[in-house]
Amino acid sequence: MDYQLVIKFWRKSLEDEAFLATIEAELKQALGDSAQLDGYDVSKNEINLFMVTADPKHSFRRAKDVLERLGLTKGVSSAYRLVGGARFTSVWPLRSTRKFTLP
């Protein structure tokens, strides 16, 4: 597993944070052995969910199905980088013009 995939939830687009209690279990079931959840961090403006995977695009597609089912796609962005790397490659939204960064 060479890549870190990050799913960013912008807090102002969320009604509440109750989904955090269940999303990890939902993602573990959907992703199986293709990705390993690596925790999350919460800041004033965003919540970042981290996972390690060998195929970040495939893992995001599977995670996106969970996000859609839970109604959490509004205000979400996602990108990946090599584990330990600094440069992110955006995977969502498509054709994103905003540079993906972590706090």
What does this structure look like?
The protein has 103 residues and is an alpha+beta fold. The protein has a single domain (3-85), classed as 2-Layer Sandwich (Alpha-Beta Plaits), CATH 3.30.70.2750. The chain is built from 2 helices and 5 strands; from the N terminus they run βαββαββ. It has helices at 20-31, 56-70, and strands at residues 3-10, 35-42, 46-53, 76-82, 89-92. It has a 5-stranded antiparallel beta sheet, with helices on one face. A hairpin with a 6-residue loop joins β4 (76-82) and β5.
Secondary structure layout plus pairing:
Elements: E1 3-10, H1 20-31, E2 35-42, E3 46-53, H2 56-70, E4 76-82, E5 89-92
Antiparallel strand pairs: 1-3, 1-4, 2-3, 4-5
Helix pairs in contact: 1-2
Quick overview:
With 103 residues, this protein is of the alpha+beta class.
Instruction: Indicate the structural class.
Output: alpha+beta
| Tally of discrete structural domains | 1
CATH architecture type: 2-Layer Sandwich
* Mean pLDDT over the residues: 89
**Termini Cα gap:** 24 Å
| Sheet of most strands | 5 strands, antiparallel
Helix percentage range: 25-40%
Instruction: List low-confidence stretches.
Output: none
Radius of gyration (CA) equals 13 Å
